[in-house]
Write a structure and sequence with these properties.
two-stranded antiparallel sheet; 72 residues; alpha+beta; 2 helices
Length: 72
Amino acid sequence: MIRSGLEIITRQLVHNLRNIPQQQQPCGVELTLRRVSQWTTAATIDFDNSRRQAAQPSSLPFNATNDTITLG
């Protein structure tokens, strides 16, 4: 189900928006990212969880001049 930006804002489904008029869109809300991560290792799963390991993430840095992230 697609909710309008107005409905999302009115029903307070998201909080702490920085600029409501700018982030509210006809079919939703533009979100502000605090961090973007990428996986640096593989996860491991098994039958009894004795060897289970979570994948390790690493944060991608934001470009200080224009607040963008370059994916490599």
